[in-house]
Amino acid sequence: MCLSNWETVTICFSESYESLSAGLQNALWKLGGIPRYHKTDNLRCAVSKVGSPEEFTENYKGLAKHYGFTSCKTQPACPNENGDIEQRHYRLKRAVEQALILRGSRDFDSVAEYEKFLEKLLEQLNAGRSKHLKEELKCLRPLPARRHDDFTRDKCRVTKFSTIRVLKNSYSLHSRLIGENVDVRIYADHIEAWYGQRCIEILPRLRGENGHYINYRHVIDTLVRKPGAFENYRYKDDMFPTSQFRFTYDILRHQHGTKQANKEYLKILELAAKENETAVNETLRFLINHADVIDFATVKQMVDRQQQPPAVTEVFIGDIDIDGYDCLLEHKEALLV
Question: By three-state DSSP, how is residue 152 classified?
Answer without folding.
Answer: strand
